[in-house]
Amino acid sequence: MPRSEARVATDRPARYAKQLAAHMGRKIDATFSEETGRGTLVFGAGTATLEAQPDALLLVVEGERENLPGLEDVVGRHLVRFGARDELVVAWHRDNGEAGLVHRNDDPEA
Question: I need a surface site. Which of 8, 11, 42, 103 has the fewest CB within 10 A?
Answer without folding.
Answer: 11
